Amino acid sequence: MRHNKSFNHLGRKAAHRNAMLSNMATSLILHKRINTTVAKAKALKSYVEPLITKSKVDSTHSRRVVFSYLQNKESVSELFRDVAMKVANRPGGYTRILKTGNRQGDNAEMCMIELVDYNEVYTQAKEAKKSTSKRRRSGGKKKTTDTDSPVAEATEAVEVEAKVEDTAAPVEEVIVEEVAAEETKVEAKAEEANEEPKAEETSDEEKKEE
Predict the structure, then answer these.
(1) Domain coordinates of the chain in residue numbers?
(2) pLDDT, tens digit, for every residue of 33-75?
(3) Which CATH architecture does the domain made up of 14-119 adopt?
(4) Which end of the chain has fewer CB atoms at under 10 Å, N or C?
């Protein structure tokens, strides 16, 4: 009968369990991701994350405490040198568990546990989203430019009127010339019409005389 089972013993005694978690934590720090069962990954998550938090303070005491758990100089130096710099601004949640299906032999639920900040796929996707995001202004007064001022509007109106006058003057001259030309044409036609009946009269008088 197992009373007060507050954590998963993983079918091992305390010494065996601690040695296994220490080896798995060392592998995770050195290789940044490992494949294991979901039960072991959850136990490793609660084992290694306090050590990563401890590595944020690079002191002799912190290094000795972490070394008492890992018992590996390479993993301790890697943790305090590289991993601590990556997770400096993260307030927790340094690992991620991704389930990969069941194992073929005993149908155990398998997963991959990894350090969050070393996954390039997720970090690149977040950077792309940040770069493509748009900022929108909510409220606030619009900035007044020089073109919006009343003085600028008045000067623009005067310039437009001057341009209209300059273009209107040659147009009026052309119209006056065209009207004068039409009047001369009309007068010429009237004179021709008056001369034709006189010529006919002279021709009739010549016939009578003959």
Answers:
(1) 14-119, 149-209
(2) 999 999 999 999 999 999 999 999 999 999 999 999 999 999 9
(3) Alpha-Beta Complex (3.90)
(4) N
